[in-house]
From TrEMBL:
Family label: Belongs to the UreD family.
Keywords: Chaperone, Cytoplasm, Nickel insertion
Localisation: Cytoplasm
Protein's UniProt keywords contain Cytoplasm: yes
Subunit text: UreD, UreF and UreG form a complex that acts as a GTP-hydrolysis-dependent molecular chaperone, activating the urease apoprotein by helping to assemble the nickel containing metallocenter of UreC. The UreE protein probably delivers the nickel.
Protein name, as recorded: Urease accessory protein UreD
HAMAP family per the UniProt record, alphabetical: UreD
Encoding gene, per UniProt annotation: ureD
Task performed by this protein: Required for maturation of urease via the functional incorporation of the urease nickel metallocenter.
Segments crossing the lipid bilayer: none
Length: 312
């Protein structure tokens, strides 16, 4: 049995006690570790003949990818990888792990095919580990579509990045309040997202945690959490191609022209770049703001605006 066949490979270490409190046994054949409950993607990309190509691919249903495509006219060698999932979304007992290794000099954009739905959990919770590595001089963008937590859902996700000092990394995330058209707004049980970035020696550069538990001390409606807003998003930009102050200035200028969104921009520790936090009342305005920020900072750092991702 290989390491990837071990159930522990997909399960986050040191889960918070607030998450473990939901870890009751699931009855029936679809408990944790059952077929179709452990999703694995292990990808490696590297420069080949002027373009970034997929050189290693291991996938286990329900996670999978097709061959990367090259769709950016400004950076024709950049590989765009669309993560896909069989089924409609996370259900209780799901344990997913995604590893993407970007070799030195590679250029990779990773996104999802569509928004991620999280369904109601009666007995357990769902988890997702995303491990990203950007080698020397590599470019890595990780910009998944929004997460939509349904009533009674429970999701813990951890995004861990290892980045070389001269790598350029852009991370983004968006959380919607739920199925608003069905009268659901922050009626999930738990949404917990951790982001951590380390250097190649393992030293922590920065970490960020978003923990939301409706009806608890970290209720989304609390003044110190989301207040009167429903949609929250983040964007993290790490690069040595220019100064953190210039990255902050460009991001603030991009967001100044977006209405109905509350945005804050700050420098990351150790001069590694900048971070953005956005709050809004509706998805369209927040997604417009994230795209505007990505477009402007991408043009600054990569010399190419945000391309059409062809998602329809």
């Amino acid at each position: 049995m290989t390491e990837r066949d071990d159930r522990a490979w997909c399960i986050p270490a040191a889960l918070p006690r607030e998450v473990l409190a939901y870890g009751t046994e699931i009855g029936g054949a679809l408990g944790v570790g059952a077929a179709g409950k452990l999703g694995v993607l292990d990808l490696a990309l590297a420069p080949r003949a002027g373009s970034t190509r997929l050189i290693r691919q291991y996938q286990r249903s329900p996670l999978y990818v097709h061959r990367p495509i090259h769709l950016d006219p400004g950076r024709p060698g950049m590989a765009f990888v669309f993560l896909q999932q069989q089924g409609d979304g996370f259900v209780q007992g799901d344990r997913y792990r995604v590893d993407v290794d970007c070799a030195p000099g590679s250029a990779v954009h990773v996104t999802t095919q569509a928004a991620t739905k999280v369904f109601k959990a009666r007995d357990d919770f769902a988890t997702q580990l995303v491990n990203l590595r950007a080698g020397a001089g590599a470019i890595l963008e990780y910009l998944p579509d929004p997460v939509i937590p349904f009533r009674g859902s429970r999701l813990y996700q951890r995004t861990s990045v290892t980045a070389a000092e001269d790598a350029t990394v852009i991370l983004g995330d968006i959380l919607l309040p739920g199925r608003v058209a069905h009268g659901e707004a922050h009626v999930y049980d738990l949404f917990w997202a951790e982001t951590e970035v380390r250097d190649p020696d393992g030293a922590l550069m920065f970490a960020d945690t978003l923990r939301l538990r409706p009806g608890k001390v970290d209720d989304p409606g609390s003044p110190g959490v989301l207040g009167g807003y429903d949609v929250v998003a983040g964007l993290y930009v790490m690069s040595s191609r220019t100064s953190p102050a210039e990255i902050v200035s460009v991001l603030r200028a991009a967001l100044a022209g977006v209405s109905d969104v509350l945005a804050g921009v700050t420098e990351l520790p150790a001069g590694r770049g900048a971070a953005v936090r956005l709050l809004g009342h509706r998805s369209p305005e927040v997604r417009t703001a994230v795209h505007a920020a990505w477009d402007r900072v991408r043009t600054l750092l990569l010399g190419s605006p945000a391309p059409d991702l062809r998602k329809g």
